[in-house]
Amino acid sequence: MRSVGTLTRADLAESINRRVGLSRADSLEMVESILQHMCNALAEGENVKISGFGNFQIRTKAPRPGRNPRTGEAIPIEARRVVTFHASHKLKEQIQGDTSEG
């Protein structure tokens, strides 16, 4: 059964189990393998594109000055890499309820 409000790895594995007929263990292993492959690709600086869903990209953020909101003290924020996600047009349409395509 799908948990309320959040789609989990277990939910994905359960869906594969029901639709494809793989065992629960094999389904969970498949989900873990896919997610690990995506993580490895992103860690190596590659983009991950899932057609009809969206693109995951690594972006390097430059260092910048920051401020502690409690004390007002200036604090430097170091450069870092972040993951960004851009939804595909199909996903955006589905979220908005426009299912006229497909």
Structure overview:
The protein is elongated and about 55 Å long. By secondary structure, the chain is an alpha+beta fold. The mean pLDDT is about 90. The relative contact order is 0.11. The chain has three helices and five strands; from the N terminus they run H-H-E-E-E-E-E-H. It has a three-stranded antiparallel sheet with strand order 1-2-5. It is about 40% helix and about 25% strand.
Largest sheet, spatial ordering of strands? 1-2-5
Q: Distance between the terminal alpha carbons, to the nearest Å?
A: 27 Å
- The amount of beta strand, in percent, is 25-35%
Low-pLDDT ranges: none
- Give the proportion of residues in helices: 25-40%
- Nearest-integer average pLDDT: 91
Q: What are the secondary-structure elements, in order, as H or E?
A: HHEEEEEH
Rg, Å, rounded? 19 Å
- The 3D shape can be described as elongated
Number of helices: 3
Extended strand count: 5
Mind summarizing the main beta sheet?
Answer: 3 strands, antiparallel
Structural class: alpha+beta
Could you name the key traits of this structure?
26% strand, 102 residues, elongated, alpha+beta, two-stranded antiparallel ribbon
